[in-house]
Design a protein that fits this description.
single chain; 212 residues; 8 strands; alpha+beta
């Protein structure tokens, strides 16, 4: 099979598996897209988590244009395709967008709370704020996510950023697939640290052995 952008397809397959294995998304969903050329996007297929457990092959990814026409591939478009297209089309500095359901981020998602930056790994990238709720998979939600990116354009064109889709999941962006994935994992660590703060602050740390 003669597939275009084969190397990137392989990288995307690797990232998809790592996302699932590290609980950075779950069977309830997740999708991601990479701009591989002008007016050309590689997109993960619909139901990549629930049906395939993120075990994807290079040929599973769909090559589309900005009008969401499928140029290569036989799968079904993700219901959040428009969200990816809007960001990748209008932010030339952004090369990848990831939507996922990270384990430790989900309490913030469920209760509509921002994730504060508490580690050096996310300092300077802004708090992960909440995007106003819209019906899942709707055009209004995709437009709402895009509006969030526009409101954070000054930072988004320089560094990876992320936002919370209330009740749904998170969205991250980066100039490359590696930077977007890194942002996803970093905010999940921040979420874990924030969730653990109460337990840590209420513990007498002096009784815990230190490394010699």
């Amino acid at each position: 099979m003669n597939l275009s952008y084969y190397e990137m397809r392989c990288e995307m397959a690797t990232v998809a598996k790592i996302m699932y294995d590290r609980k950075l998304t779950n069977a309830a969903g997740g999708n991601f897209a990479v701009r591989v050329d002008e007016n050309r996007i590689l997109l993960s297929p619909s139901m990549m988590s629930e049906n395939k457990h993120c075990m994807l092959k290079p040929e599973d990814f769909l090559l589309i244009d900005y009008d969401q026409n499928i140029l290569e591939g036989t799968g079904k478009l993700s219901r959040e395709t428009l969200m990816h297209v809007l960001i990748l089309k209008n932010f030339k500095e952004i090369g990848c967008v990831i939507h996922a359901h990270p384990f430790y981020c989900m309490p913030y998602v469920a209760f509509g709370k921002p994730i504060p930056n508490v580690t050096e790994a996310t300092m300077g990238r802004g708090m992960v704020e909440v995007i106003p709720w819209q019906q899942a998979y709707s055009e209004e939600l995709s437009v709402g996510v895009y509006k969030y990116w526009e409101e954070h354009r000054e930072l988004a064109v320089k560094k990876p950023i992320a936002g919370i889709m209330q009740y749904h999941g998170v969205v991250c962006s980066g100039d490359t697939i590696y930077k977007a994935f890194s942002m996803l994992e970093r905010i999940d660590v921040d979420a874990f640290c924030n969730l653990s703060r109460a337990a840590v602050m209420n513990t007498d740390m002096t009784c815990i052995p230190t490394l010699k």
